[in-house]
Amino acid sequence: MTEPRLQLPDDLLAGEAWQQLECVYDPELGVNLVDLGLIYRLDVKDGKVQVEMTLTTPGCPLSDSMPDAVERALLTIPGVSHASVEVVWEPRWVPEMMSERATRELGWV
Amino acid sequence: MNYTIEIVNNRNIVKKESAAVMTIKPKRSPEPDLPGRYLVTGLVGFILFAIGVPLLATELVRTNDDPRVFALSHVAVLGWITMTMFGALYQLFPVALGGTVRSPRLGRWNYWLLATGIAGFVPSFYWGWTAGVAIFGSLTVGGVLHFAFQLLRSYPSVRDWHPMAYYVLAALVWLIATIGFGSVYALNWHFAWFSVTDTMLAAHVQMGLAGWLGLTLMGVSYKLTELFALAHGHSRALTFANLGVWNVALLGLTLSLLFEPGAWLVTGFAGLLAIAALLHVVDIALLLRTRRRRKLTVEQWHTFVSLGSLLTAAMLGLLLVSGHAPGRNWVVAYGYAALAGWFGFAIAGKSYKILPFLSWLHRFSGVAGRQPVPLLSELVDQRLAWSSFGLLAVGFAGVLVGLLLGDATVVRTAGALYAAGALLFALNAARLVLPLAFLRRSHLVSQEMTA
């Protein structure tokens, strides 16, 4: 017997998704991906989440594992039926995209 | 949630099966045991070198022209530094340059060829067994050449032409030249075809130190400093200028040492190489000024000592070729400043980034996002790292002074401190790299999945 699928409004899911991504950390910098400014776009439609993200540099050693981690994190949210992550390089990430909290944690300010 | 591992076209594919979605992503990184076994062997080489310095103090303060000193220098160059660089390049080539290493399986076989060659070559040097030097030297040459060609064959797959790609490419050419000259000298020691002069040996040493090891280290440093210090917006003009000046100076120095057209030419090119070394130090300092992570880490303190040692080695080299060195112990001091100082501190420092990253990637990347995972810094015992750095730095400075003064007691005492620092470093590093040397990724991921 298949479990009934939980259906939540898309805007509620979007909020949940942003919160969930705040729990995914860059293991080197110790700052979450949202505060680092790496998540460019997050769309939810009918329980399907699409994320556009970048990395701090094209040669980032985490280029395989961070998108996977994002996808896994999104799929843990009840009501999310599908998650896809696209890594983009335009616009190129610059440190000014970080939140104030991130810059503080890195000792920049 | 169920996870299964499939091997498709010799690449690991993590296939996620859930009620919701199935995704398949290829991984470019080689299996962890490939870099892991080279890195573990490098660690063993480091310990042997560190212990060897105080044990050979009497020979080291006397001359560089001694079979036991040759053995010690080759433990450092081949057993420690080259093995570590091979391991690091197997790991960094895919992740930092976006390339795919061709024939990783051959790389595994090649490891045994190289390890056997070095394990026989060094004792043969030590006991002056010329036939052993020729036989095991040939195995070592085969192993090194295979690595160079394997990486050169992989270059068309590079996607990010960062300066590191050009530095390592040039380094591979110098590696082939170094090993070519070295093999002729090793065979010649047994067969006595011609007499090898000091300047001919110096050319071999320069190609190895400044060409293969130096260019690789500089290239990797640019990439890792950008990555880990979050340094952005730095102009690459000086980086490429340094690459050009360095190679021209080294080519000129090598040719003038080999053909001896005049001492002034050797001094001139050595001076140009020293200027290039200064350019590199200035360039890294400018790069670090753009960093967004302000707090200096133990890795960066290692970098500072490494760069200081590079300038010291450059000055000593200049004094040697211009005939201002008081004795052969200064040749040993020059080699020690380059090997233990410039390369040694850079390797130890960067290991605190590369090893945790390698460990994290293969142990935790499969579950990141689904459950809490440690940060890279949490995988390293920071107290042990700082203690090791202190002992290494004090020991290194003491040995260098002892070598310049020609005092064996100072070299022995400071060398013991350096060896203690090396052992602390090995304790920290071994916990991370030992499991990787013996396990394939599929085993590691399976373990994490069931944990």
Overview of the molecule:
The complex is a heterodimer of chains A (109) and B (451). Chain A has a single domain (10-92), classed as Fe-S cluster assembly (FSCA) (GMP Synthetase, Chain A, domain 3, 2-Layer Sandwich), CATH 3.30.300.130. Chain A is 27% helix and 17% strand. Chain A has helices at 10-21, 65-75, 100-105, and strands at 39-45, 48-53, 82-87. In chain A, strands 1-2-3 form a three-stranded mixed β-sheet, with helices on one face. Chain A is globular and about 40 Å long. Chain A starts with 9 loop residues before the first helix and ends with a helix. In chain B, 76% of the residues lie in helices and 4% in strands. Chain B is mainly α and 451 residues long. In chain B, a hairpin with a 2-residue loop joins strand 1 and strand 2 (11-17). Chain B is built from 14 helices and three strands. Chain B starts with a strand and ends with a helix. Chain B has helices spanning 33-55, 57-60, 67-97, 104-126, 130-154, 163-191, 198-229, 237-259, 263-289, 298-321, 329-363, 382-405, 408-438, 441-450, and strands at residues 2-8, 11-17, 22-26. Chain B has one domain: Cytochrome C Oxidase, Chain A, CATH 1.20.210.10. Chain B is globular and about 65 Å long. Classes of the chains: A alpha+beta (109), B mainly alpha (451). The interface between A and B is large, with 40 and 45 residues.
